[in-house]
């Protein structure tokens, strides 16, 4: 089964209501490949989610940037998976490296969040990736495998999971992974899934790349056999996000 190209825009903690409306207007006016070719999901901060959902074109979807690890209740400042479901927010990003690093989210905690969100009916963009130190010490695959294992230990149905491989050293730094570096890890991750989950999950689960993706580097990255799309930070706030969505076309000629 072909894996549909997936382009996510992670707006992180950015934007005013006016700026957010402007970004949505740009997206709404854009000519992009059809939904059969590319799945587009944008992730505004929580407070803008209902507004973005209400004004965004119907062929694009929204994602939250996080959700609580279990049922809501006395957890000040958190937003539960149930609330996202209630507002018909279909997707959630979990395990982003900024949360792992700055908010001390462990592999197990991220795994628990992924399992809980899936059980509530959300679709999950689950992020994994190594730091520069880990890459330089040769432990990239061990790190990424351990992060993925914590998810695999808790999840049996992978049909609503997209894995985002985001090397921490490439996020927000302008130092994009080379197409060969991205392909190598995506290929290894797919082999890990084949060995530890199933051949079917390995063949069908989308593994997208994130970290300094922009309008200039997206085509070559997207042309790699195991790169099934992108999770885009900085460039998702700019009109070049449209070019990144259009990179889905590279798979047609592949
Ligand atoms: P970046 O962020 O594109 O700004 O590097 C990617 C991400 O954090 O998802």
What does this structure look like?
This protein starts with a strand and ends with a helix. The radius of gyration is 17 Å and the shape is globular. It has about 250 residues and is an alpha/beta fold. β2, α2 and β3 form a beta-alpha-beta unit. An 8-stranded parallel beta barrel has the order 1-2-3-4-5-6-7-8, surrounded by 4 helices. It binds 2-phosphoglycolic acid. 2-phosphoglycolic acid binds next to β8. Belongs to the triosephosphate isomerase family.
Topology:
Elements lengths: L4 E6 L6 H13 L8 E6 L5 H7 L4 E5 L16 H6 L4 E4 L2 H6 L4 H14 L2 E6 L3 H5 L3 H13 L8 E5 L13 H18 L2 H6 L1 E5 L7 H5 L6 E4 L8 H6 L3 H4 L1
The structure holds 2-phosphoglycolic acid.
2-phosphoglycolic acid binds next to strand 8.
* Helix percentage: 40-55%
CATH superfamily, by name, is Aldolase class I
Total DSSP E strands? 8
Global geometry:
globular
| Biggest beta-sheet profile | 8 strands, parallel, barrel
Strand content: 15-25%
Number of domains: 1
Order of helices and strands: EHEHEHEHHEHHEHHEHEHH
| Count of helical stretches | 12
Q: What is the CATH C-level name?
A: Alpha Beta
> Mean pLDDT score, rounded?
97
Corresponding CATH architecture: Alpha-Beta Barrel
Low-confidence residue ranges: none
Distinct small molecules: 2-phosphoglycolic acid
Distance between the termini: 15 Å
In angstroms, what is the radius of gyration?
17 Å
In the sheet with the most strands, the strands line up as 1-2-3-4-5-6-7-8
* CATH T-level topology: TIM Barrel
How would you classify the helix and strand content by structural class? alpha/beta
Pathway: Carbohydrate biosynthesis
Keywords: Isomerase
Protein name: Triosephosphate isomerase
GO biological process, one term: gluconeogenesis
């Amino acid at each position: 089964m072909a894996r549909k190209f997936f382009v996510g825009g992670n707006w992180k903690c950015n934007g005013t209501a006016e700026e957010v409306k402007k970004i949505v207007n740009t997206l709404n006016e854009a000519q992009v490949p059809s939904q059969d070719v590319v799945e587009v999901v944008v992730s505004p901060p929580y407070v803008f989610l209902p507004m973005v959902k209400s004004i965004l074109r119907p062929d694009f979807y929204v994602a939250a940037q996080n959700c609580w690890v279990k049922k809501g209740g006395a957890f000040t400042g958190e937003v539960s998976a149930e609330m996202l479901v209630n507002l018909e927010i279909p997707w959630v990003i979990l395990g982003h490296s900024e949360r792992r690093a700055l908010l001390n989210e462990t592999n197990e905690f991220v795994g628990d969040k992924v399992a809980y969100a899936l059980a509530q009916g959300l679709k999950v963009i689950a992020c994994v990736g190594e730091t520069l130190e880990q890459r330089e010490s040769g432990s990239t695959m061990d790190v990424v495998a351990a992060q993925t294992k914590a998810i695999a230990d808790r999840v049996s149905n992978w049909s609503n999971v997209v894995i985002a491989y985001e090397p921490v050293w490439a996020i927000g730094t302008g130092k994009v992974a080379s197409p060969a570096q991205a392909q190598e890890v995506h290929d290894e991750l797919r082999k890990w899934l084949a060995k530890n989950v199933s051949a079917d999950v390995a063949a069908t689960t989308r593994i997208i790349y994130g970290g300094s993706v922009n309008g200039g580097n997206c085509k070559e990255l997207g042309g790699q056999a195991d790169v099934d799309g992108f999770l885009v930070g900085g460039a998702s706030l700019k009109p070049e996000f449209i070019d990144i969505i259009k990179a889905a076309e590279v798979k047609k000629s592949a």
